[in-house]
Amino acid sequence: MRLQGKICLITGSGSGIGRSTAVRFAEEGAVVIVNDLNDRDGNETVAEIRSNGGEAFYYGANVTEPDKVEAMVADIIAVHGRIDVLFNNAGISGVGKLHETELAQWERVLQVNVIGVYIVSKAVLPHMMERRNGSIINMSSCIAEIGLAQRAPYAASKGAVLSLTKSMQVDYAPYHIRVNALLPGTILTPFVERYLKESYEDPEAGYRSLKARQLSGDLGRPSDVAQAAVFLASDESTFVMGSPFYVDGGATFG
Ligand code: NAD
User: Whose CA is nearest to atom 24 of ligand 1?
Assistant: First the structure.
């Protein structure tokens, strides 16, 4: 059990990579705090974990709302005493070439993908600093480094998460808090299914073109990212700090 007894908060864990990670963390002995803004999906993740004999609790909150996030974190601390691992996973897409996008779209994407990381981390960090221990995983994307057609606001947001991660690592290393970024390639989740429908007249052709970007020859699965998250959350990775951690089937390298 690589995460035995660890209290792990995963934002946006009602779907996709977040849900898969929540299930894996529980299999490794963690007490999983499932957060999402979609109560039905979040509760489904909890039900899946409990049906496997794991321990999980659902907290509905939008990561862009500081009051709700602070109340959630205060309650987790009151009930469980601490947060050992924070996985800032919640994120939304932002489709379009720069000149086609609207300001409101940029504001929405940056608000969730970047400012959401700030809001949740700000609420959790004082508790980790007090205990001088913690692992934070921020969800970036290989798009931060290699770009992708028609996703200007999204690429900008994930680049910001990568820089923020490095800056956080420098600031919180003295408190023995590790901060790493995950950079997945294209992972087959509802998020990517929506992207294929929105961006391609023929989603099948879109799927083939995304596949062609991967040296692995296929898209990733949520469990591929979940495995990497287990490593970063666990004490196996105590010497991994401020890293861009690629789980991209070779998309960045290729
Ligand atoms: P998904 O859409 O399947 O899941 C995202 C979850 O986040 C949903 O349950 C959604 O309700 C929740 N969420 C959205 N906004 C929220 C908010 N403001 N507050 C709380 N919860 C919120 O997506 P996914 O593919 O699993 O993506 C998860 C993360 O991984 C995202 O940050 C995404 O950018 C990143 N990512 C995905 C891929 C991929 O190919 N799927 C690749 C690289 C990075």
Answer: 16
For residue 87, the cross-strand partners are 10, 137
Class in CATH terms, 7-247: alpha beta
Pocket-forming residues, ligand 1, beta carbon under 6 Å: 11-12, 14-18, 36-38, 41, 62-64, 89-92, 112, 116, 139, 141, 184, 186-187, 189-192
Between the CA of 90 and the centroid of ligand 1 the distance, in Å, is 5
Mean pLDDT for each consecutive 10-residue tract of the chain (254 residues)?
98 98 98 98 98 98 98 98 98 92 97 98 98 98 90 95 98 98 95 87 90 90 98 98 96 83
User: Distance (Å, rounded) from C-alpha 162 to C-alpha 166?
Assistant: 7
Model pTM greater than 0.90? yes
* Alpha-carbon span 167 to 78, nearest angstrom: 29
Provide the 10 A C-beta neighbour count for residue 197: 10
